[in-house]
Amino acid sequence: MGNLCARTSCCRKLWSCICCCSNNNNKAPTRSQHGSKGKVHPVSRIEKWEEKITEANNNGKILVVNFSAPWCVPCKKIEPVFRELASRYPSMIFVTVDVEELAEFSNEWNVEATPTVVFLKDGRQMDKLVGAETSELQKKTAAAADLFLKKP
User: Fold this and answer.
1) Which sequence positions are flagged as catalytic?
2) Neighbour-count burial of 72, counting CB atoms closer than 10 A to its CB (0-12 exposed, 13-18 middle, 19+ buried)
3) What is the pLDDT of residues 119-150, one digit of tens each?
4) Under 8 Å CB-to-CB from 125, ≥6 apart: which residues?
5) Deepest of 8, 9, 71, 98, by most Cβ within 10 A of its Cβ?
6) Could you tell me which residues come within 8 angstroms of residue 93 by beta carbon, excluding any fewer than 6 positions away?
């Protein structure tokens, strides 16, 4: 479980929000519009996850998984960048997993803070980013796409 801080309401959840000790946002959480633009697929059931990982594996694609929460301010910060990357890299499959809807599943992937972005190839983790560093997300996605293009 993530290190929890008592400063903001988002941190009193099961996962800690990367911004928790630097951003005191007392606004009521709103549900983000995952998948409303670009090609980001929301995953709220294990069956949907299995469908997407099978699709990625069967087609030799990289699966980019954004573990997020609707109350997490940094998750909202990277969401438009994540959608834009999904549009820019159609050879990859982008999904968003709500850590509250799939809590046990998120724990199995060792998600201790949101946002956490995991890059998978053939069902195995090839890279991971914890936090809302958009430039780092862009770099890691470009590197994964380069790897995909260099496959034998």
Assistant:
1) 72, 75
2) buried
3) 999 999 999 999 999 999 999 999 999 887 76
4) 118, 119
5) 71
6) 41, 52, 55, 56, 61, 62, 63, 64
